[in-house]
Amino acid sequence: MTFKQTLIEQTKKIFQNRYDKNPEVISISPGRINIIGEHVDYNLGLSMPAAIDKYLCVAISKNKEQQINGYSQNLNDSFSNNYSLNNDSRHWVKYVHGSIIESLKKSNYSSGFDIVINSTIQMGKGISSSAALEVSILLSINKMFNLQMSNKDIIKRCQSVDHNHINIKSGILDQSACLLSKKDSIFIIDFYDMSIEYIDYNLKNVKWILIDSNIRRELASSKYHERVNECKQALEILSLQNKQISNFRDLNINKTKEISILPPKLQKRVIHVVSENDRVAKMKEAIKKQSTKKMGDLLIKSHESLRDNYEVSCIEIDRMINFSKSIKGWIGGRIMGGGFGGATINLIELGYENYFVDKLSIFYKKNFGLNCIAEDLSFVDGAETIYINSLN
Fold first, then answer.
1. pLDDT digit string, tens, across residues 192-217
2. Of 92, 97, 238, 260, whose Cβ has the fewest other Cβ atoms within 10 Å?
3. Which region among 110-124, 212-226, 298-312 has the lowest average model confidence (pLDDT)?
4. Mind spelling out the 3-state secondary structure of 32-60?
């Protein structure tokens, strides 16, 4: 039995023990990493995500009450709330309730649900535990009620959970990655037209290592929304000056004249977005050519831009990346996710994984008194829904 199958069976048993019945549907979603293309999804840019072998599993059934009863195995926490009204301030409860409400927005259903959540995706680490939860619930209810939502519909409704229930004006990178990924592949998603290009990933001489800094990031913080609003403000100024500029894709990385009219801070934000899109295109070519040195250089440049232009890094992660440059076998890396803490993604020469982690752990503990946690990553298929009959 695979690790994924074990999680599914475990979740099923927890549900049976808690509610004394079988779940109607079980869905499971992977977490995700983003190789490159950070903070560009809400700017109609390019990103290169991939689902990873860390999973969140949801077991769910309808009930005859007007209650949503939920239990999180990882948090050892539960709730029982009115279906139509949620006054619970707990973050994970808002995600569950919001996902159910957005799933059935056009439905007359007014009874309730019993739900169990079980996960190996660590929360607040930048690998999309919240998106995996949203996707799993949306998929489950889509199947349970035969709503025939398309992948695009599911992704947009997940985004509505963030906007309407969590008050995060997020893009759709995380949900797209959790839902649309394919095993042993990465993909480029173009947020301008939502087109997707899959790229075979055949590199055998490197490994991707995720390093958790143990600096907790809060995506809903004012700093994240500042960046969203700054980009919106910059685009409005540029569009007024030049009617041919409708989004940042209309700007050329080699021509800076267009953005010289912006205040310095907004110039930096635009430089990051435009240059990051350019790095995604270059990363695609580097992967196809299996040029790991070029891949590493692009990761480093991405981090430098996130640090200097977008200003979403932190001192601990900056020091971590700088020290990594001195470790044999480290090819490149950067801060990943919303920023302000969280994790780094690192490209390591095969055979040097343990050496890299050992050296970095000693440095980090000595300088910051914190343990950094390493995860070895594999790329997997996206989320799926399983009828309970197929598990018996």
1. 998 999 998 989 999 999 999 988 76
2. 260
3. 212-226
4. EEEEECCCCHHHCCEEEEEEEEEEEEEEE
CA distance 121 to 132: 9
Nearest to 375 by CA among 352, 350, 345: 345
Place of tokens 């996206």: 382
Tokens of 267: 């110039």
Write out the residue range of the structural domain in which residue 108 sits.
Answer: 3-200+380-390
Q: Is the pLDDT of residue 87 over 50?
A: yes
Q: First CA to last CA across the chain, in angstroms?
A: 14
User: Which of the following is catalytic: 174, 297, 318, 358?
Assistant: 174
Has residue 190 been placed in a domain?
yes
> Tell me, what's the pLDDT at 124?
66
Please report whether residue 98 resides in a domain: yes
> What's the whole-number mean pLDDT along residues 331-350?
92
How many domains in the chain? 1
Contact 122, 212 (CB under 8 A): yes
Is 236 a domain residue?
A: no
Q: What are phi and psi of 243, to 5 degrees?
A: -65, -20
335 lies in a domain? no
Nearest Cα residue to 220 out of 178, 172, 158, 169: 169
Strand partners, 33: 50
174 among known catalytic residues: yes
Q: Residue 112 burial (CB < 10 Å; 0-12/13-18/19+)?
A: buried
Q: How far, in Å, are 194, 196, 313, 361 from residue 83 at the CA level?
A: 33, 36, 39, 46
DSSP conformational letter for 379: B
- Which amino acid appears at position 211 of this protein? I
Q: Which residues have a Cβ under 8 Å from the Cβ of 65 and sit 6 or more positions away?
A: 111, 112
CATH number, position 47: 3.30.230.10
The angle formed by the CA atoms of residues 190, 34 and 127, to the nearest 5 degrees, is 125
